[in-house]
Structure formats: structure tokens, C-alpha cells
# Entry
Amino acid sequence: MHIEEITDRQLAWQAGLYGVFLVSGLLLALSDKLKAKQGLWRIHKSPKLNAYPQALENSGSHKNRR
# Structure
């Protein structure tokens, strides 16, 4: 890597983008951990979360797809 050829502006953009991806990844991991801790991933116990596949079966639109 030729650090001498990179301008301050390019370095700032690269560091900023890295920071954005780092923070978004940490927030995603934190939200997954909180959801798992609260038990929201248990779809079989929640009729609301299971309603979507049943709605697809009742709509009949999936029968026409091949």
C-alpha cells in the first residue's frame, strides 16, 4: 500500500466508511443478541409471525408460479 499517494481527503473518506460499517455491524449484532435474549426468534410460539406463510397458501398466487 502506498500511503504517500493517498490524500487526506481520501483517507478521511476511507476511515469514515470503515467507521460506518463497523458501527452498523455492532448495532446489528447487538439487536440480534437482544432479540435472542427476549425470545423473539421463537416463531412457532407466535401466531402473528406465522401468519405470512398461511396467507400465501390461502391467496392461491403461489400455485401459478413455476
User: Anything to note?
Assistant: Residues 7-64 form one domain.
